[in-house]
């Protein structure tokens, strides 16, 4: 007597053998280019892929074309199928999903796609903004020149060279507490000199 999980399905095929049969059909296509095996796969998966495409929003013509493209990809890529990594159904519907995504990308006009921020040119700086930045820069440099040399050194390393306190400690050969106190004193003096810059 067959176990309960291997119930007889329509057509006399058990659920367990049907699933393993799909994998073996793909393997037959991969090894022997077996047209009968491919026809059986096409007969079973073709309508299911088309129905899935229709539910995904494709019009009937596009759904039919994508289903055929999917099955053609199954024929061409059968050697890439690995039953240990995915079931036949999962593998085939992954191909279908990827083809659907590719179709959507082709349909969209390039101007509709979001521009990659890296590719987008920076907007030119307005003249008044550039003037303000230049004036602020001059004020900051002037305020830095009024600091004692050891405080200005620590400020340059921390903010212009982007170094952490431990790196400054090693470079200058001073204790970490001294680095922090020099930074604190320098920042207080800079705040007093540049109060309106925040």
Please outline what is shown here.
This protein is an all-alpha fold. Helix content is 68%, strand content 0%.
List key phrases describing it.
disordered N terminus, Arc Repressor Mutant, subunit A, mainly alpha, Rna Polymerase Sigma Factor, Chain: A, 68% helix
Descriptive overview:
This protein has 198 residues and is an all-alpha fold. The chain has 2 domains: 12-109, Orthogonal Bundle (Rna Polymerase Sigma Factor, Chain: A), CATH 1.10.1740; 142-191, Winged helix-like DNA-binding domain superfamily/Winged helix DNA-binding domain (Arc Repressor Mutant, subunit A), CATH 1.10.10. It is built from 8 helices and no strands. It has helices spanning 15-32, 35-55, 60-77, 88-107, 127-145, 149-160, 165-172, 176-193. It starts with 14 loop residues before the first helix and ends in a 5-residue tail after the last helix. Mean pLDDT is 80; it is low at 1-17.
């Amino acid at each position: 007597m067959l176990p309960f999980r291997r119930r007889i399905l329509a057509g006399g095929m058990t659920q367990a053998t049907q699933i393993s049969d799909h994998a073996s059909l793909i393997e037959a296509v991969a090894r022997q280019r077996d047209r009968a095996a491919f026809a059986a796969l096409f007969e079973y998966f073709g309508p299911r892929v088309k129905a899935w495409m229709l539910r995904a929003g494709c019009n009937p013509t596009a759904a039919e074309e994508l289903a055929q493209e999917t099955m053609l990809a199954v024929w061409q890529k059968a050697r890439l199928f690995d039953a240990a990594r995915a079931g036949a159904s999962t593998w085939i519907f992954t191909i279908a999903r990827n083809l659907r995504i590719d179709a959507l990308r082709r349909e969209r006009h390039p101007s509709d796609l979001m521009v990659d921020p890296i590719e987008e040119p920076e907007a030119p700086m307005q003249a008044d903004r550039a003037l303000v930045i230049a004036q602020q820069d001059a004020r900051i440099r002037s305020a830095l020149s009024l600091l004692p040399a050891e405080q200005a050194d620590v400020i340059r390393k921390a903010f212009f060279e982007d170094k952490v306190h431990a790196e400054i400690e090693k470079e200058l050969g001073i204790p970490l507490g001294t680095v922090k106190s020099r930074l604190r004193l320098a920042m207080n003096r800079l705040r007093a000199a540049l109060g309106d810059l925040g």
